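User: Um, any thoughts?
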Amino acid sequence: MRKNVSQRSQRKRNEKIRSELSGSWRALREKDVSQRSQRRPNERKGKIMSTEQLLQESEQERKALLSKLEDLKQVKEKLQKSYEYNRLLFNSSPIGLALCRMDGSLVDVNPAYAKILSRTIDETLKLSYWDITPKKYADQETLQLKSLDEIATFIK
């Protein structure tokens, strides 16, 4: 009999705990639903903002980003036009032009320069400055390159 009483009292306690937990759980769910329906504050940049304010700020940032992208696109187009213009001038110049590194390797030559050497542009680019420069000027050119390297100007 004692066992039955203790089992009954245990069941009553369990039911009471379940009931309390169920009520607490229901209250928490109702509170969560009511909070969701209201504007919930969000933290951004150290200040509390409503969802609507966050959306407005995000839209402004999106517009600013699109504006920057448009600016970059225009800059890219201007650079492309500038490149094409300068390339046209370089290639159509009747004066032979060559761009070389400090070690004497050729980076770029125009058709007039290749014609002076009686070579194609590809053949000319395989040469170095030192292959083209007559040996009698080698010491003078070495001095000029040393001056250019040290003081960023040619010797007059």
Summary: Residues 94-151 form one domain. The beta strands are 42-44, 47-49, 98-100, 106-109.
